[in-house]
Amino acid sequence: MPIPFSFDHFYQYDEILAFLKQAAGEYPGFADLSVVGKSYEGRDIWCITITNKATGPHNEKPAMYIDGNIHAGEVTGSHVAMYTIKQLLETYGTDPQVTHLLDTRTFYIIPRVNPDGAELYLTTPTMLRSSVRPYPEEEEKDGLRAEDMDGDGMILQMRVQDPSGPWKVSEKDARVMMLRSPDDMGGKYYRIYPEGRIHGDEERPVKIAPTKYGLDINRNFPANWVLSQGGAGPYPLSEPETRALAEFVLAHPNIGAFQAYHTTGGVIYRAFCSKPDDKMIPADLALFKAIGRRGEEILGYECMPASHGGLGAVRAGIFIDWVYEHRGIVGYTTELWDMMGRAGADKKKESSEKTPKEQEEDQIKQLKWQDENLGGKGFVNWTPFNHPQLGQVELGGWVPKTVRQNAPPGKFLEEECQKNYKFTNAHALATPLIAVEGVSVTKVAENVWKLGVFVKNDGYMGTYGTQIALQAKIVKPLKVSVCLGGAGEVVGGKAEQEIGHLDGRVAASAGWYGPGGTTNHEKKVEWTVRAPVGTKVTIEAVSERGGTKRAEVVLQ
Q1: Which phi and psi (to 5°) does residue 226 adopt?
Q2: pLDDT at 516 over 80
């Protein structure tokens, strides 16, 4: 039965929980719900585990981890995560790719990491970055605090006429504000502030009060953490949400692929977030780029290291850095929704690097796009307003929550869900996948047998995932064992043998050839056993990231 799902609005906490419960209830053979931790305000953080239980338990299969909405207002991420859940469950048996994935892999999906922040964001005009915990101070500072002054349910911008102001109205489009050139004089000029109210002394110049929501949960992970990083928190994993995610990843060593959904900008970020590419092991860099290229092909987004992409600053304490550097997992942060790209604006340069004319052109292109595609509803025209402290001002600007920060509900939100779901599946298919093949039995004496088996890796990644994981011994080597069910004994070779790791297809494509020009993607394991005719033998191969496979043979 289809799971009801809408693209016409962003889901609140109770709606997401109802969706997850219905998904698990409709597909008990494929889905289980669990709570990974609690938020700052005590809400449960829910995870749904998806796999075909008939083909094995979730922890015996290679796994992909997906989350959304770690940042309060980036609610498009929750929608993409829920769409992924719906598609995986409803298309099993009809979509060959999905059927193969759920038969052989596991998905751990947390649609809403930050339920507190998202709830405040979706139910009030407030804009906030991340956690609702006041930080670094409990009390708000004086100054101009953001507030919905005209009661329209949005916090926009205020423009105030000031002869010394740095802004002026574009001659090409009266909605656009552009910076004055050095020799501008004799016109109308403005200062621009967030829509809000001044608290404390109404002094000049107007000072913007720092937000009381100074934490950034995605700067609170241990990798490269520094106190000086904005929003980092008092110490790594100080926040209940980040600790819950880290403990979940640590408790699931089968996770070999990672996807975090954020907004906005139309970019696929990869590690590193705080170091240049030449600091990464070359083989791992090649792996990140290879999977990232599939993302570029599917999404039309550029894949780049977060250390010098998009937001233009080195960032510490990021989740994708932690999962790679501390767990050896290939992970990406996709910044969903690309209005600039859709409008044909220049994304190659940072806004700060553009001339005022270039910035003006970008704004005009985006306004034209929203006029044509959103009927002009993405921008509120500048409207006079009598401010109780500043006098006559004008309120207006971009609709912040459902146009600038998130994909507009409707067809654009649906498109983001559809194409990112495809990249998710491509990434999951790249995980390692072991197989047990070619079991042989040879009688060497009365009730004495020689057993042989080939253990292979059919996946793209090696069973270690990444070279950093291999070097740091983060992932345990493969173990292959034989069980005679108490009917005999192993007389040659150890009953359980450790065989190291197996390369994936990426090794061949990257040219990591071993002796004779081949990769180390399979190994033969042998035993000599003493047991009567008719004994059923079970051979088991266990790989933390490549799964568990078994084969049975009867001695005869």
Answers
A1: -140, 145
A2: no
